[in-house]
Amino acid sequence: MTGRTIMIVEDDSEIRSLLSDFLTREGFTTVCAEDGAAMDRALAQARPDLVVLDIMLPGEDGLSICRRLRATSTLPILMLTAKADDIDRIVGLEIGADDYLPKPFNPRELLARIRAILRRSEPVPVAGVAATRRVIFGNLVADLHGRAVLASNGRTVDLTSAEFDLLACFLERPKRVLSRDQLLDWTRGRNADPFDRTIDVSVSRLRRKLVDAEPQLADAIKTVRNGGYLFAIDVRALPSGGAV
């Protein structure tokens, strides 16, 4: 996990310096930017593995930057927010952030969340095509090792790492009711807040992307009242070398 590059976009110079020093001690390379313009200049020079993005920035705010980044890349994004209101967290996840952390926070929790996101977003090395785990649902093919979903027209369905984690939970447990707590635990780890309702936002976003790719999947993820969610369609393994 060390050797990765983390970009810190934070206008508070003291916090920016503290985070950079802390992550450097943990074996990461850091790139710092005080606002969106500085971030753009840094991205033109280097490709980080993850962006820690403050929501309250001068000029273009973090939500706008997140939306802009997500429109052109799947670069993992961890948002920082000083606001206690859940609306910023929900909006951040809605527009594509992989996780969020409210200020003030323990640097160790930030480190744990960064590592968790990087683990989730890292493709699993495989010996060859025969070793991949590929499944079909509807007319989509998901490569659970390569972390990619292909539509019937050959195009890749653009999912964030968090959205793919959620889809994988459903594909590995089709036609079972999965509670919100289970989904939070499997996708965000033991540090997830048990009262966090943003899993509903993530499910809604995943639903929308699946339907955009294949309209027949409109009822694929069903909401179970007082239960959670259920992936209601068949999932079958795709043999090595198989095609839809």
Name the features.
244 residues, 8 helices, five-stranded parallel β-sheet, 38% helix, alpha/beta, four-stranded antiparallel β-sheet
Could you walk me through the main structural features you see in this protein, from its secondary elements to its overall organization?
It contains eight helices and twelve strands. With 244 residues, the chain is α/β, with parallel strands linked by helices. The strands form three sheets. The protein has a five-stranded parallel β-sheet with strand order 2-1-3-4-5, with helices on both faces. The chain has a four-stranded antiparallel β-sheet with strand order 8-7-6-12, with no helix packed on it. A three-stranded antiparallel β-sheet has the order 9-11-10. The model is unreliable at 124-132 (pLDDT under 50).
Produce the secondary structure layout.
Elements: E1 5-9, H1 13-25, E2 29-33, H2 36-43, E3 50-54, H3 62-72, E4 77-81, H4 86-94, E5 99-102, H5 107-121, E6 134-137, E7 140-143, E8 148-150, H6 161-172, E9 177-178, H7 180-188, H8 198-213, E10 221-224, E11 228-231, E12 236-237
Parallel strand pairs: 1-2, 1-3, 3-4, 4-5
Antiparallel strand pairs: 6-7, 6-12, 7-8, 9-11, 10-11
In short:
The chain is built from eight helices and twelve strands. It has 244 residues and is of the alpha/beta class. The two termini are 35 Å apart.
Structural classification: alpha/beta
Number of strands: 12
The percentage of residues in β strands lies in 15-25%
SS summary, helix count: 8
Helical content class: 25-40%
Mean pLDDT across every amino acid position:
84
State the separation between the terminal residues, measured CA to CA: 35 Å
Low-confidence stretches: 124-132
* Main pleated sheet: 5 strands, parallel
N-to-C SSE string, H for helix and E for strand: EHEHEHEHEHEEEHEHHEEE
Strand order of the largest sheet: 2-1-3-4-5
The rounded Rg comes to: 18 Å
Shape: globular
